[in-house]
Design a protein that fits this description.
The chain contains 8 helices and 10 strands. With 275 residues, the chain is of the alpha/beta class. It folds into 2 domains: 175 residues, 3-Layer(aba) Sandwich (Aminopeptidase), CATH 3.40.630.50; 88 residues, AF0625-like (Rossmann fold, 3-Layer(aba) Sandwich). The strands form 2 sheets. A 6-stranded mixed β-sheet has the order 2-1-3-6-4-5. A 4-stranded parallel β-sheet has the order 8-7-9-10, sandwiched between helices.
Length: 275
């Protein structure tokens, strides 16, 4: 179980500094490090450059913590108003940090825990107009510690939205303090669908399935190496692969994926089969 969390943001990132500023009010003594205590808690790490590039990070510092939460801005072509959660890595090209075909570790159970609390807190707070969504695994940095990104998008207005920053900060605090491992969840990697994980969002929020890495349809052809990487970089043992059946339109591609899964004795289910 994770106890020592590190919240990482860039000083250049308005959304990241918004979230960490809001979160700082919940840390009783900002000068006291959680590394010095035998209890659950978090520290801050503000960097001078962009956090998607591992060379901008003190990896030795990061290695001392159990789990890394990157607080960041979200960008989209349509400037969608969103609060997003996603795992880290590149299935193909490494255009924005990391390495080609490599992903960082994560925890399906902690991500589910964080996502459920985020949805609930956004609903309770009454903040308007934000899409609350997971995203497929994408961009850097490539690190050895399990991690996740939490982001505000997608314009300067949202980046500086203090109310949204407060809701995310409160969510991070509650997720850290309330995390107790995996009492009931089935764990899955997710295959197919779009970048914003429409069907996987529903399952993450409303079922007992916890989703870690998401390989979207735009990464097709989905290879055996990708699937093995997603499994290996999930801290929990995987119960099955979850397939967005309609999200992979090509029947031949679906068959190739199933052949890979069955060859490796990996159970699989369609999203429609999840209660």
């Amino acid at each position: 179980m994770y106890k020592k969390f590190l919240i990482v943001a860039s000083k250049l990132d308005k959304a990241g500094t918004n979230i960490t500023t809001q979160l700082s009010q919940f840390k009783k003594n900002p000068l006291s490090s959680v590394l010095q205590k035998n209890e659950i808690g978090f520290d801050f790490y503000l960097v001078d450059k962009e956090i998607i590039y591992a060379e901008n990070l003190d990896l030795e510092k990061i290695s001392k913590y159990d789990f890394i939460i990157f607080a960041s801005k979200h960008k989209s072509e349509k400037n969608m108003k969103a609060i997003t959660i996603h795992t880290v890595g590149n299935w193909r090209e490494a255009r924005f940090g990391g390495e080609r075909g490599k992903i960082s570790k994560t925890s399906a159970v902690f991500i589910k825990h964080l996502f459920e609390k985020l949805r609930l807190n956004c609903e309770k707070s009454g903040i308007k107009g934000y899409d609350i969504t997971m995203e497929a695994t994408h961009h850097g940095p490539l690190i050895e510690k399990p991690c996740v990104f939490v982001e505000i998008g997608s314009t300067e207005t949202e980046y500086g939205d203090r109310r949204a920053g407060f809701v995310i900060a409160k969510t991070i605090l509650e997720a850290i303090e309330g995390f107790r491992g995996n009492p009931y969840n089935e764990v899955a990697i997710a295959l197919g669908g779009g970048h914003y994980c429409l069907n996987f969002n529903k399952i993450q929020e409303k079922s007992n399935v916890a989703i870690s890495h998401v390989i979207p349809s735009y990464a097709i052809p989905i290879t055996e190496e990708m699937i093995k990487e997603a499994i290996e970089k999930t801290d929990e043992e995987i119960d099955f692969a979850l397939i967005d059946w309609k999200g992979i339109e090509n029947a031949e591609e679906r068959k190739k994926i199933i052949d890979i899964l069955e060859k490796n004795y990996i159970q699989w289910k369609k999203t429609a089969e999840i209660n």
